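pasting for the record
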Amino acid sequence: MRRWTPTDLQTLIDSLLADGIRVLGPRVGDAAILYDEIDTLPIGCGDEQAPGYYRLTARHDQSRFGYNLGPSTWKQFLFPPEEAIFRVQDGEFISCREQPEKMAFIGVRACELAAVSIQDRVFMGDFTDPGYASRRENLLLIAVNCSQASGNCFCASTGDGPAVGVGADLILTEVRPEDPYYLVEAQTEAGQWMIAAVGGPVAAPEEIDARDEVIAATRQQMQREFATEGIADALLSALDHPHWDVVAERCLACGNCTQVCPTCFCSTTREHVNPVSLDVTHMRGWDSCFTADHSYLSGGVVRQSVKSRYRQWLTHKLAGWDQQFGLSGCTGCGRCISWCPVGIDLTEEVAEIRRPL
């Protein structure tokens, strides 16, 4: 394990850019932390979160990773919000797939790394999505152990954080935010290459202990608990529970929760016609199970009520995913709680539905 300074961290970003790698990470925009192309990291940014509430704040220190999760997810770069699949030109089908550029995600949290692993199972499981697979194969993952928890985090309950698990190329831990240094460890050959490109002294034993203390303190900060044992059977046996009506009275069916979720993968397709050449391009884009048209089958909409759409989302996320992919669709990131306009809390709703009548 190595010890890096903020200058070393910037050297890593500069070396990735010099190698022609597209570096994606946190930046401040639209009064939030967003994921976008970067050439440096924001300094001294934090946030406050509660159900239906998110505010960017100033930390008054030198922390590069002192924020919690904003509305952006890494999903947008692997499974784009809109993507051309193929076009038809003069009766010939032509693929729109392009050779992906190399990317590096920097600042991936433990729950987000777990979400990438889940989407790998979705898009590269029994059936492989070639666009997703090609982007995934050209990706470097630079993860960060969380040094604080938001008011909506519950990744400790799902087992997906706050410590980074397997799947990252490089793992960073920020210690002492007022004058930060970073403990760096590699999980892959690519991670070892990145460490070799920057260098840095070997971490001292007391510095490694400091890393463990940061992670333990973050775990203790989490205010929400989420009982996951037996949750699939509990939800599927409570499809007629009266609390579905209660939550449906609050839910706006806006789809915010699915748009900020790092694992949701509902999509729709449409055709775009060029009015001059009459070429037709087949497009795929994000959709949500909260929209009425998403459940349209021949003859009409299957899930006409908000109640049925919320129930579909929650039971699929926490029960159906286990049947399909062998794991849950929730990693405890808390985004759906923060970005719900009416502050619906998944953990509270599940607890009510599991409560005996």
